């Protein structure tokens, strides 16, 4: 949305400048014609550019003028989405071929997928207690395939994010399924959408049910202070020792809690943004063992000289598998004892805009479980995620948007997965993506 808005602003500025130039040229042309001087026609390149800009403006006008989706409530509803094709080449075996997060010893893979396409619904509702209501929903087709035929082609509809908000001038109450509020930033990638870029490599990303409130305070100058607090239902990691249908967080009978305090620039400003967060959630295993998960986080976003932009997030905590850390696990069980795992990690990204249509991104992220806490259990957990001690990922990409509705990207990713014992495994993942937004 920010990229589209920026393109529209650039288009408006260009059209205004073009109108002024054409007006001046028209006056000059009239003078020359009166003087009997032949008129030199505009170069073909300028005519092509004018026609292209006119077509883009007509598309924008058509978008505004189009028929709206009708709902029973008669309030505005909008359907949008992204049809995304991505092709991939992995030099060694990975956990998910189309959107890999960890490297595994074995042969590589090559293929293509459209399962990361996204469908969304946005709705505006009536005012309540002086606040405006809004709701949205996003789904994709990357659910776990249980069918045996055409699984890669079909996929299963999967809920990604959902929000219901009540907005006042400086306060917002929300119910949502989204990334934790302690991890507001996300790396930029068009290739990794089923699981965001640097997932399980320092990016605490998992989409969790949350209910909370946020409030902003103007503190003068070009900055304001934003305070967010929420209750959160944290899921179990993908591989769990429990076979019950409830998560360990839900079994504890106490919701998790999180708080985030951010020093942010005002809307439209380019000042630095800095935030700190905290998370705490009681857990209880199927065997009745209780332990607490917690995290302390730091996030940042700022502009740099030469048109560069940087962002990132770092954390230190315990039992963070449910948030997308901890090497896919919250704890290790052995010799009759349950040992929650310490974890440290984070990521940082550097962005460069080369005009309104092209950007370059480079990022690195790492998630690191303390090896000393894993080593004594390697006899029981010798393969897979349970043996994962550190996951390190680098990526670099270029994203080109020739219009507000078309996106193209080339991305190169390097994944290094280190088990608690044995050699690290590397995989280079090369991905291409082509998307159409509607």
How many extended strands?
21
**Computed CA radius of gyration, to the nearest angstrom:** 25 Å
The largest sheet has its strands arranged as 1-5-6-7-8-9-10-11-12-13-14-17-18-19-20-21
- Helix percent reads 10-25%
Q: Residue ranges: pLDDT <50 for 5 or more in a row?
A: 28-42
Strand composition percent: over 45%
Euclidean distance between termini CA atoms? 12 Å
The helix count comes to 5
- The topology string of helices and strands comes to HHEEEEEEHEEEEHEEEEEEEEHEEE
**Average pLDDT for all residues:** 85
Structural class: alpha+beta
What profile does the largest beta sheet have? 16 strands, antiparallel, barrel
What would you call the shape?
globular
């Amino acid at each position: 949305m920010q990229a589209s808005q920026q393109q529209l602003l650039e288009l408006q500025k260009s059209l205004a400048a073009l109108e002024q130039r054409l007006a001046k040229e028209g006056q000059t042309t009239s003078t020359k014609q009166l003087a009997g001087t032949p008129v030199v026609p505009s170069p073909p390149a300028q005519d092509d550019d004018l026609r292209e800009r006119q077509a883009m403006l007509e598309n924008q006008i058509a978008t505004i003028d189009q028929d709206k989706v009708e709902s029973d409530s008669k309030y505005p509803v909008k359907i949008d989405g992204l049809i995304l094709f991505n092709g991939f080449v992995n030099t060694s075996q990975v956990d998910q071929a189309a959107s890999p997060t960890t490297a595994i010893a074995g042969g590589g893979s090559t293929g293509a997928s459209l399962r990361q396409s996204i469908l969304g619904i946005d709705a505006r509702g009536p005012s309540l207690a002086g606040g405006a209501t809004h709701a949205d929903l996003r789904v994709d087709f990357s659910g776990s395939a249980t069918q045996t035929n055409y699984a890669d082609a079909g996929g299963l509809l999967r809920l990604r994010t959902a929000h219901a908000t009540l907005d006042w001038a400086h306060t917002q109450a929300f119910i949502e399924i989204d990334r934790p509020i302690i991890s507001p930033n996300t790396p930029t990638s068009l290739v990794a959408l089923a699981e965001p870029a640097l997932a399980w490599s320092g990016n605490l990303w998992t989409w969790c049910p949350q209910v909370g409130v946020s409030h902003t305070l103007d503190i003068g100058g070009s900055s304001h202070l934003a305070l967010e607090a929420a209750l959160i239902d944290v899921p179990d990691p993908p591989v769990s020792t429990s076979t019950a249908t409830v998560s360990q967080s839900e079994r504890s009978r106490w919701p998790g809690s999180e708080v985030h305090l951010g020093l942010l620039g005002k809307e439209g400003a380019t000042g630095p943004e800095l935030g700190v967060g905290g998370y705490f959630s009681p857990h209880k295993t199927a065997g009745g063992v209780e332990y607490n998960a917690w995290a302390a986080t730091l996030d940042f976003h700022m502009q740099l000289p030469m048109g560069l932009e940087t962002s990132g997030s770092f954390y230190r905590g315990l039992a963070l598998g449910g948030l997308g850390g901890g090497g896919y696990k919250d704890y290790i069980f052995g010799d009759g004892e349950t040992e929650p795992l310490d974890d440290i990690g984070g990521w940082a990204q550097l962005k460069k805009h080369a005009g309104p249509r092209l950007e370059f991104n480079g990022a690195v992220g790492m998630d690191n479980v303390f090896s000393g806490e894993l080593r004594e259990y390697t006899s029981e957990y010798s393969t897979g995620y349970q043996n994962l001690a550190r996951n390190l990922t680098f990526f670099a990409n270029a994203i080109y948007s020739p219009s507000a509705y078309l996106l193209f990207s080339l991305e190169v990713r390097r994944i290094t997965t280190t088990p608690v014992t044995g050699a690290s495994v590397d995989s280079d993942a090369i991905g291409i993506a082509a998307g159409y937004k509607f």
